[in-house]
Here is the input.
Amino acid sequence: MQNYAASLTTYDGIDMSSLMDLHKKYKDEVPKEHNGRLEFMNAFARAYTLALCEIPAGNALIKGHG
Here is the structure.
């Protein structure tokens, strides 16, 4: 596969202080009410979903390779 697709890694910094505050506020309450843990991945998945709604090309692939 690596012969056909470019390899790229990008690192970006973000301000997660609001997310950290939200997590701290609700981390004990969520398991009691929803039988699950409040994880940071939930917020990342939601952000990615919203971004794809605005920029569908972000969910792209190279046809014929993969």
In short: The mean pLDDT is 84. The helical segments are 17-26, 29-34, 40-54. The chain has three helices and no strands.
